[in-house]
């Protein structure tokens, strides 16, 4: 029997397994995916949002705790647990040396359109390289890993973990357990049920695409909720991005993102604008657009730009629809040309003179049109014109286990002493809604490491060096 059983195979699960093993515990990991698809959504990640008070290796300038907190407060609209959020923020400032020790490499700061060289540390080789590094380190340390082993239920007694039951019926016992097995984003039936129907009688989730793994079906999340575990989060809240409508159903990842929204206008199937495209910098606001598109007819929209925008954003993997006139573009994308021209003409007429600067919150705005465009508003008048089709792309869901600074699962407000959760399973404690680039990795790394240490301690093994880091993250 292992000391610690870790269920899941992505970043949070790996952080838990590594920390528990460093503490001296024997560890078994169960990954539902086959080896070639291991890593959950972490395969698709690119960076980690990091607090830092001064320039650090791959991070420029400073990104202090208070600014990180204010960024999080803005995107969540205050629906966040401040002590836990601040714990994650402080943890993000100190985790990179440990990540490097386990083989993760960071790349030099990026400049240009993404505007995140100050706030985010990028992984050399992306999420796949990060996941592979952690798996290599886990194997060297003696963590036992089983692939293609989905768990269907847990055996619990008075809020304590007893055993995991796999889909094949095998019963696996351990002294403690960490649930790092993701949300329910890949479970399309659950998505439809959660989102329901809109006023037009359409199932809102009908056209959702899943940016990440097909293996996050939410099996243990549902089991835990049904078993009476304390949960947190709205099932319709998720990291939900407007992505290319031509993306595959699963695992499209980062390359399906459309990054030109702030450089033009977005219209729905009725050829009307519906939100301020220039509200804030794209890395801070890109994750609201999936939800916005989900609320439009047919869950579809188009990002419209002209030639002036080309070269100012990361080009999508698929070419957009191209036309020499706006009328021709409307016909090509199948929206009513008359309404489309009314929308574009009203927008163009509302654009005020200003100094365009995509690296700053500039003074290029509209006046007299609803919705307003508050920054980067330029007349769309230079052929050729481009349209990119958008659909909601779900990255991960926020419904999860209510927890505290120990990462313990709770039943009726009482913390379990040997059952912990990490990653997407607890993200809803910090992310009530909204998202800002890289914060999912901050949450997964913080709670993953804490869950691993506490699971090991529950089994009688104490990590030799993590105590001071925990105290710092907790604000002591």
From TrEMBL:
<keyword id="KW-0285">Flavoprotein</keyword>
<dbReference type="Pfam" id="PF00890">
    <property type="entry name" value="FAD_binding_2"/>
</dbReference>
<protein>
    <submittedName>
        <fullName>FAD-dependent tricarballylate dehydrogenase TcuA</fullName>
    </submittedName>
</protein>
<dbReference type="InterPro" id="IPR036188">
    <property type="entry name" value="FAD/NAD-bd_sf"/>
</dbReference>
<dbReference type="InterPro" id="IPR050315">
    <property type="entry name" value="FAD-oxidoreductase_2"/>
</dbReference>
<keyword id="KW-0560">Oxidoreductase</keyword>
<dbReference type="InterPro" id="IPR012831">
    <property type="entry name" value="CobZ"/>
</dbReference>
<keyword id="KW-0274">FAD</keyword>
<feature type="domain" description="FAD-dependent oxidoreductase 2 FAD-binding">
    <location>
        <begin position="3"/>
        <end position="430"/>
    </location>
</feature>
<dbReference type="InterPro" id="IPR003953">
    <property type="entry name" value="FAD-dep_OxRdtase_2_FAD-bd"/>
</dbReference>
<dbReference type="InterPro" id="IPR027477">
    <property type="entry name" value="Succ_DH/fumarate_Rdtase_cat_sf"/>
</dbReference>
